[in-house]
Amino acid sequence: MKLPSFDLSPLPKSVRFDIPRVADPRFEVSGDTIEMFDAIGEGGITVAGVTAALRPLAGRDVTVQINSPGGSYYDGAAIYNALRAHDGAITVQVLGIAASAASIIAMAGDRIEMARNAEMMIHRVWAITIGNEEDHAESMKFLQRLDRTAAKTYAARSGKPESQISGLMRAETFLTAQEAIDLGLADVMLARDADPKRSATKAATPIQIANKRELSEFLHRAGLSKVAAQRVASGGFSALNPKIDAGALAQKIRATAAAISRT
Q1: Any idea where the domains of the chain sit in the sequence?
Q2: What is the C-alpha separation between 209 and 231, in angstroms, rounded?
Q3: What CATH number labels 15-194?
């Protein structure tokens, strides 16, 4: 996918980005997976750390997992460019939130996946300015320029007009996984979330029980005492199908346990 690169001018001396802190930060590399579970920028995830992580993965496909509140726009832009320069495919997985600068990083993915309950947040760049009137005026022009650059990046990834993206940024928009997919800022949900029937099918798989002893052991694992499980197996097994539906069995367990407690 052809994505724009960031061409950033020097940061004005009077401008500083506000970097949030994360209670349990983590930046780790496990196999071909890079975990970005921290703020972006100084004291958190930096471009130096990311490029060092990518170096031994040259030529290999990489998965980048993100749960980050964002942070420094410049660090986010630099990490985005570092991921774009990698000579293998990049799959981004948003596990919790990719907010602010972290959402810029997410745009570098050749494929962007999101957990069903994850979110992405895009907004206008903001920073802290210290100085006189001229410093603040320079800061305003600087932030406007960065907003246009960010909007171009989101628009290129989504295929939506820059004006629409700029409006969402101005409103500081939080997007659910489905909303991000509909907007074109993500491609799909994580495999398990994309096919909710998988877990339901697994739960409905019949339980193979061949005899009273196996039924007694199963009922005991389900929470009945050994004595209660043996009484249920002895008194009720003949009425049960050897291939027992999990839901139906759960109802029998509850009903039988209630009957035992009354005796």
Answers
A1: 15-194, 205-262
A2: 16
A3: 3.90.226.10
Pairing type for strands 207-208 and 243-244 reads antiparallel
Residue type, 84: R
- Sole residue written with tokens 């495919």: 89
Instruction: Name which of 188, 179, 193 is nearest 91 in CA terms.
Output: 188
**Both structure tokens of 43:** 């004291």
Helix (H) / strand (E) containing 194: helix 191-194
User: Tens digit of pLDDT per residue, the chain (263 long)?
Assistant: 555 555 555 656 666 566 666 667 889 999 999 999 999 998 899 999 999 999 999 999 999 999 999 999 999 999 999 999 999 999 999 999 999 999 999 999 999 999 999 999 999 988 888 899 999 999 899 899 999 999 999 999 999 999 999 999 999 999 999 999 999 999 999 988 876 665 455 544 555 677 777 777 777 776 667 777 777 777 764 444 555 555 666 666 666 656 655 55
Q: Quote the pTM value.
A: 0.68
Q: How many CA within 13 A on the CB side of residue 160? A: 16
Tokens found for residue 6: 């960031």
Q: Is 21 exposed, middle or buried (0-12, 13-18, 19+ CB in 10 A)?
A: exposed
